[in-house]
Amino acid sequence: MSDMAGAVRTADAPSAAPAVPLRVRLGVAAGTVVLRLLALTWRFREVGREGWHALRATPGTGVVVACWHGQLLPLVWHHRGEGVAVLISEHRDGEIIARVARALGYDTVRGSTSRGGGRALLELVGVLRRGREIAVTPDGPRGPRHTFAPGALIAAQRAGVPIIGVVAHVDRSWRLRSWDRFEIPKPFARITVAYGDPTPVPGATPREAAEHGAAFAALMDALGARAESAARAAR
């Protein structure tokens, strides 16, 4: 979803979107309709969202919401209409995802978590300091799968906002043969969503913040295990 190599673009600072062929635009429109019909059959269960709710009780508090790239579909659907902005790459593939996200009511922030510096990072920090909740895929847009790129860590640390991990467990799904094993829940799938506690990024410098990628990836893995355990218990 994200690639901070280019400038960050938000609804507050619009710029021209990359050109997308008509057939792709039509495909996105049709795909969004199919997604809505499919997603209406999904059933969601939340685990451990109290920390996020508590954070939202303080207006104007920014947060980085981290989820794995391969789990985007059910999570984007589940959190639609909640006011979360989505960080999406500047590439053409990112523009396709951005169109789907906007069709579901999301604001989009164009940039990346794959790199730790540059003007794009500074702009992302500014968006977070203004109190926005921004969803990122720290292993996107190219992988490796389930790794935490430094950009999200550095942005959260410099903005002084926490990271909340969000992981989904789907009881039945199709998986694409892509680097992220992109997951499409089947009709009537049961989806358990586990939320981590708001966690600040340690370190006084960007370099120190970037060193905690493995630790945050481990937190995400633990959330995945928690979601799977809760799904089993609910059967």
Automatic annotation (TrEMBL):
<feature type="domain" description="DUF374">
    <location>
        <begin position="77"/>
        <end position="145"/>
    </location>
</feature>
<dbReference type="Pfam" id="PF04028">
    <property type="entry name" value="DUF374"/>
</dbReference>
<dbReference type="InterPro" id="IPR007172">
    <property type="entry name" value="DUF374"/>
</dbReference>
<protein>
    <recommendedName>
        <fullName>DUF374 domain-containing protein</fullName>
    </recommendedName>
</protein>
